[in-house]
Amino acid sequence: MMDPRSNLMDESFQERQRERQMVLTPEPEQNGFVEVIATIGAFIFMLLTFPISVFMIFKVVQEYERAVIFRLGRLRSGGARGPGIFFVLPCIDVYTKVDLRTVSFDVPPQEVLTKDSCTVCVDAVVYFCIDDPLKCVISVENFNHSTRLLAATTLRNVLGTRNLSEILSERENISHTMQSALDVATEPWGVKVERVEIKDVRLPVQMQRAMAAEAEATREARAKVIAAEGEMKAARSLKEASDVIAESPAALQLRYLQTLNTISAEKNSTIVFPLPMDLIAPFMSHFKK
To answer: Could you list the residue range(s) of the whole structural domain that residue 246 is in?
Structure first.
């Protein structure tokens, strides 16, 4: 069973979209009596001031600009003009230039409470451009200011659903999520969000100290584990070496002599054997039995 409230919301959203599309699609101009008189008067004024009016009726927009023209309050058919030269009638035509180049702005640092109840201060950079000049002029009063406010709100909403560890380690994923959310919200305004980047994540001093202590404890525990593993491997190697030496009396005697040589070299001393090593062999064999 579908929720009737969701159906009503979908229908209302579709209705608003249809109304917006009707506004953005200029109807064929049906000039009334007043419009005709105003247009004739504009032509007469243009002819009377011909040498000067040339500078008033011809306008130029650059390659990266478009001009949205209104005649007596109505959007002129044909869409946005440009790039190049276009014609306007004095007194009755009003035009607005729209810059299509990519614009970037800094989102002010936002204090956000994360999902695991940690307070962080995060700022970001947003890159956007105008995708539809007609929508950005008609649908919203100030698309630049509105996009800035929406970016700050979206940043707080997205970070509020993440843990602190995710914010610190998954910046790229958070940036893509913000870009998708902003792009969907600004599409009716004719704005295309191209890129969002998280600049910096600042933590409180107490949180930094706690994280530093946790990292230090983790490193110490890891060092102790590595040292214990090294001692275990060394003990196993010594056991294997002792087994090999025990199997050969000659190897044991050579090891004994090598140890004596090392001791005499370090302390610069002379070692005297109390008795020959061959006399100890019967006792060693008896000890082995």
So the answer is: 217-288
Task: Check whether residue 79 and residue 122 sit in a common domain.
Answer: no
Q: Which residues pair with 122 in a beta bridge?
A: 110, 201
* Residue 83 shares a structural domain with residue 63: yes
pTM (global) more than 0.70: no
Tell me the C-alpha distance between 32 and 204, whole Å. 66
Q: Which of 157, 149, 136, 147 is nearest to 103 (CA)?
A: 147
pLDDT along the chain (289 residues), means of 10: 43 53 52 70 77 78 90 83 85 88 91 85 92 90 91 90 86 90 91 90 74 74 85 82 70 68 64 56 58
Residue 171 inside a domain? The answer is yes
Given 79, 99, 119, which residue is the final one in a domain? 99
Q: Are 191 and 98 in contact (CB under 8 A)?
A: no
The answer to whether the beta carbons of residues 203 and 120 sit under 8 Å apart is yes
Total residues belonging to the chain: 289
